[in-house]
Specification:
The protein has helices at 6-12, 32-42, 66-87, 89-100, 104-112, 114-132, 134-153, 158-186, 192-214, 223-236, 244-249, 253-264, 271-286, 298-315, 319-332, 337-362, 364-391, 398-412, 425-444, 446-452. With 453 residues, the chain is mostly helical. The protein has two domains: 1-13 and 61-240, Up-down Bundle (Growth Hormone, Chain: A), CATH 1.20.1250.20; 292-453, MFS general substrate transporter like domains (Growth Hormone, Chain: A), CATH 1.20.1250.20. Helix 3 (66-87) runs antiparallel to helix 10 (223-236) and helix 7 (134-153) runs antiparallel to helix 10. The longest helix has 29 residues, at 158-186. It is globular and about 70 Å long. It comes from Miscanthus lutarioriparius.
Length: 453
């Protein structure tokens, strides 16, 4: 359940493959140069202060951002929902096991089966977003999420819990794609990167909310924390426009211009941006269709090796395993599960915000090295605490080592893909630390591989 960096994806061509040719026509929009000339002819004092700039081009950021910010606020409710789904199982284990009568292995299935639904949702999300549109796809995911949460709330046995968890997984799989794509498609270039990071921030906020509130309420009451963002998303979508890029892609000219004008402000000249969007879509359509075999061409091998390698190693690092079973891990280490999950919930949001600020300044490679090294250290300390517990060594240090290890792990590691936690906790964490160490070595060789390529 990795994060999609939509700001890069849209620039790289993630516009969609929906049908319908978009005919390039001259938009009936206000042209700044013509207005400036009319102002000068009339001798208007506003001529010198035109908002179109010295070259007659409007500044998109200078236009109204109210609708962009409102639409982003609605969309990130889906990101918040993603986080609550991931964080739900950690603080609810004891309540569900006691009330429903699940065994440890059955609860392990309940926690990790979310990823099965997420994989199905991720596979179908692109087709849905291109066919139904960005708004309708988010609306569909919100409805699925509501059904998922209600299924969990009224569950009386393991199978019903599993069904609800799979529905929630499908919801998160769809939202993990369509939310960042929608945000990047509506945002002006100048603030696109900043708005795109809100997706990651709200995922962690949702997870933190589940951790903190889950320590205070019952597992059935915690369902409300997941229902609220679904309801807000479902209602809020009625008050925001559709993505102008998607409308242009399916050939809806009038709706495309109306949507883009609404996002940029009534007084903004959108003619240049509208032409760029349509030209870009036409250039994408003229490209030859790609095949899976093209990934294995020599010119693409470097990018494929780096991209797939990072995904594999990061998925083996165990971030979702800790997310799903945090309370159980703390309890096994003789530390308060509620206090541990609450501490993680508190540190996640500022750490994520700090990482977003550093990303463009320090570079991705440097942050990957730091986060992978921290993941190795955190998993090693946690595994060491369980080793001491099993051997009866330094028993007073076991809770402290586990707490420090998990906090270090969460403190430096960004959101990664799904993992699962096995029964042998000590060996599992040593495996996670080994995977993180391999990630460090892989990233360290990154530049050498690029030079050889």
């Amino acid at each position: 359940m990795g994060i999609v960096r939509a700001a890069d994806d849209v620039e790289a061509g993630m516009v969609g493959s929906g049908g319908g040719a978009a005919t390039t026509t001259e938009p009936l929009l206000r042209h700044c140069k013509e207005d400036d000339q009319e102002s000068k002819i009339r001798g208007s004092p506003e001529a010198a202060g035109s908002d179109c700039g010295s070259e007659g081009r409007p500044d998109p950021v200078a236009g109204s951002l109210r609708m962009v910010l409102r639409s982003t606020a609605v969309a990130v409710c889906g990101s918040f929902e993603f986080g609550t789904c991931v964080g739900y199982s950690a603080p609810t284990q004891s309540g569900i096991v006691d009330e429903v009568g699940l065994s440890i292995s059955e609860f392990a299935i309940f926690g990790s089966i979310l990823t099965i639904g997420a994989m199905v949702g991720a596979v179908t999300s692109g087709r849905l977003a291109d066919f139904l549109g960005r708004k309708m796809t988010m609306r569909f995911a919100a409805v699925v999420g509501i059904f998922g949460w209600l299924t969990v709330y009224f569950a009386k046995n393991a199978m019903v819990l599993y069904a609800g968890r799979v529905l929630l997984g499908y919801c998160t799989g769809v939202l993990s794609y369509v939310v960042p794509v929608f945000i990047s498609e509506i945002a002006p270039k100048g603030i696109r990167g900043g708005l795109a990071t809100s997706n990651q921030l709200f995922i962690c906020s949702g997870c933190s909310a589940a951790y903190i509130i889950g320590a205070l309420v019952s597992w059935r009451s915690l369902v409300l924390v997941g229902l609220v963002p679904c309801a807000v998303l479902l209602v809020g979508l009625f008050f925001i426009p559709e993505s102008p890029r998607w409308l242009a892609n399916i050939g809806k000219e009038r709706e495309f211009h109306a949507s883009l004008q609404e996002f940029r402000g009534e007084d903004s000249d959108i003619s240049e941006e509208a032409t760029e969007i349509k030209d870009y879509i036409e250039s994408i359509r003229r490209l030859p269709k790609t095949r899976i075999q093209d990934l294995f061409q020599s010119k693409n091998m470097y990018a494929v090796t780096v991209g797939v390698g990072l995904m594999i190693f990061q998925q083996l690092g165990g971030i979702n395993a800790l997310g799903f079973y945090t309370s159980y891990i703390f309890s096994s280490a003789r530390f308060s599960g509620k206090l541990g999950t609450t501490l993680i919930g508190i540190i996640q949001i500022p750490i994520t915000f700090f990482g977003a600020l550093l990303m463009d300044r320090s570079g991705r490679r440097a942050l990957l090295l730091v986060s992978s090294s921290g993941a190795f250290l955190g998993c090693f300390l946690t595994g060491l605490s369980f080793y001491f517990k099993a051997q009866g060594l330094c028993t007073k240090l076991v809770p402290t080592l586990a707490l420090c290890g998990i906090l270090v792990y969460y403190g430096v590691l960004s959101w990664n893909g799904p993992s699962s936690l096995g029964y042998h906790v000590r060996g599992t964490f040593f495996l996670f630390s080994a995977a993180s160490l391999v990630t460090v070595l892989f990233v360290a060789k990154y530049q050498k591989l690029k030079e050889e390529h």
